[in-house]
């Protein structure tokens, strides 16, 4: 029988992904005929649901140096690719990524048609996401600043329950689960990556398996020297949280941008998260499980290089802006009864 945490996580991911998700144990023991089962890629789910948006900038455009860099890159891409085409890596929530060739002037609907030619998936069944944006059919590839060798995420729309996803146990790391439900950090300050780490007190944190997944484990503080449990290791990344829902009709990116006012940043699009789990709760996806109401958040490590901080006025919290999705790595999923 699946553990209580595994069952709760499956319910949470069902709401986040808008697809039916079951535990690995249920997949093994309760498979039904005429149903296609797919293994859920938790990293793809996380990356596809990062909330991106504009970064406050006096002119709301990249600076001259960046603009020249972008133009040079585009020119190089056009020179190096036949007919000015670029390559996109399409990553679904299940299975391997595949590549397609598109023109920067192609519309997103034309991209979906090329995906149909490659995979047989109808355009109407596809949702494409890039850097926190759901791509609109009528807009062009270049309007989203999508460049050569970019990863775009593919989420399939639910089709009458034909497809069921399962969370493979290999994606989870229960030894690092930590139930903070009854923990209160009064008078304690924890540090991660030279930033204050506000632990998810009141939440149950389920760990994702991320050890040895990237080029090294330094970003997690593994292998570093930590003076005690509250201290930070050299070169580890700080901790943030993000949810995928709206609060008062705004996403975390909308609110972060508004709080940022006219502060001048050096890039004009970014992924928003927050180091404060109480701020993130406003944007947490809600779901019902066994008659109880819950909220779910992703817990991340964030690359401190090029990290921008927005301090909201009147104690409304802090927002972080990362340059791109690769600078935000999820290592846990936090669930709380609300």
UniProtKB/TrEMBL annotation:
Record InterPro entries: Ubiquitin-like_dom, Ubiquitin-like_domsf, Ubiquitin_dom
Domain Ubiquitin-like: 86-161
Domain of life: Eukaryota
Name of the protein: Ubiquitin-like domain-containing protein
Organism annotation: Glomus cerebriforme
């Amino acid at each position: 029988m699946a553990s209580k945490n595994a069952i709760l996580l499956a319910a949470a991911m069902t709401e986040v992904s808008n697809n039916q998700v079951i535990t690995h144990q249920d997949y093994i023991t309760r498979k039904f005929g005429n149903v296609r089962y797919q293994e859920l890629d938790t990293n793809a789910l996380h990356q596809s649901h990062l909330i991106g948006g504009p970064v406050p900038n006096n002119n709301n455009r990249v600076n001259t140096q960046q603009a020249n860099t972008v133009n040079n890159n585009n020119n190089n891409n056009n020179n190096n690719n036949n007919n000015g085409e670029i390559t996109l890596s399409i990553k679904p929530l299940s299975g391997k990524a595949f590549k397609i060739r598109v023109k920067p002037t192609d519309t997103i609907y034309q991209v979906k048609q090329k995906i149909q030619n490659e995979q047989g998936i109808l355009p109407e069944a596809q949702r494409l996401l890039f850097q926190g944006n759901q791509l609109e059919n009528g807009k062009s590839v270049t309007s989203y600043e999508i460049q050569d060798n970019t990863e775009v995420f593919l989420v399939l729309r639910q089709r009458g329950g034909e497809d069921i996803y399962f969370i493979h146990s290999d994606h989870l790391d229960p030894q690092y689960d930590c139930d903070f439900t009854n923990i209160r950090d009064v008078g304690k300050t924890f540090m991660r990556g030279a930033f204050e780490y506000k632990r998810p007190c009141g939440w149950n944190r389920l760990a994702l398996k991320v050890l040895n997944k990237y080029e090294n484990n330094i970003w997690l503080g593994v292998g570093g020297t930590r003076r005690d449990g509250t201290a930070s290791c050299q070169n580890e990344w700080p901790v943030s949280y993000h949810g995928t829902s709206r609060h008062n009709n705004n996403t975390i990116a909308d609110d972060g941008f508004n709080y940022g006012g006219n502060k001048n940043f050096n890039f004009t699009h970014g992924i928003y998260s927050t180091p404060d789990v109480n701020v993130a709760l406003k944007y947490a996806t809600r779901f019902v499980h066994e008659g109880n109401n819950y909220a779910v958040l992703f817990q991340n490590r964030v690359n401190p290089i090029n990290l921008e901080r927005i301090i909201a006025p009147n104690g409304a919290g802090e927002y972080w802006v990362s340059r791109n999705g690769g600078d935000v790595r999820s290592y846990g999923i936090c669930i709380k009864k609300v």
